[in-house]
Amino acid sequence: MKVLFVCLGNICRSPLAEAVFKHKITAHQLADRIEADSCGTGDYHLGHQPDPRTIKTAQRNGVAIWHEARQLMDQDLTEFDYILAMDQSNYDNILKMPSAGRHQHKVRLLREFDPLGMGDVPDPYWGNLDDFQEVFQIVDRSMDGFLKEVKRTLA
Ligand code: 4NP
């Protein structure tokens, strides 16, 4: 199974989501059955490492992180089984890709899996470290819900 996390710049929310997901699938002994990646709908930060605040937040929460930013490609819609958008704007942009029609069922909002409520993972780029920690908390609890769905799918 292949899972793709998508935000705008691919330096804040989606690389953190990818790192949290990889941490959890390793803890659940599922790492050999699942691949995860992240990308952005925008092209502002291609090839960049995650934002220093993303790295700091991952480290503070005991999660290893490594990623180089890349942009969403049409081929991703064919290749991945789950494409999880961090917010509605990115969700809408994923659905504008040429192949989206055939693969629309794969595209979901991450916070569909948040037990505390749906909506956007707020963009922390213009915020401070507290905003990054809030993103971590939203991503962390949404991921527990998503992992339950993944386990059902794999079973
Ligand atoms: P991300 O955050 O989508 O969570 O990676 C952003 C990163 C960069 C920009 C916007 C959001 N930007 O405008 O450069």
The count of domains is 1
CATH architecture type: 3-Layer(aba) Sandwich
Q: CATH superfamily membership, which one?
A: Response regulator
Task: Please tally the β strands and state the result.
Answer: 4
Coarse shape: globular
Which percent range fits the helix content?
40-55%
The level 1 CATH classification is Alpha Beta
Enumerate the distinct ligands.
4-nitrophenyl phosphate
Order of helices and strands: EHEHHEHHEH
Structural class: alpha/beta
Structure commentary:
It is a single chain. With 155 residues, the chain is of the alpha/beta class. The chain has six helices and four strands; from the N terminus they run E-H-E-H-H-E-H-H-E-H. It has a single domain (2-154), classed as Rossmann fold (3-Layer(aba) Sandwich). The mean pLDDT is 98. Strands 2-1-3-4 form a four-stranded parallel β-sheet. The protein is globular, with a radius of gyration of 14 Å. Helix 1 crosses helix 6 (129-154). The protein binds 4-nitrophenyl phosphate. 4-nitrophenyl phosphate (4NP) binds at residues 7-13, 40, 44, 123, 125.
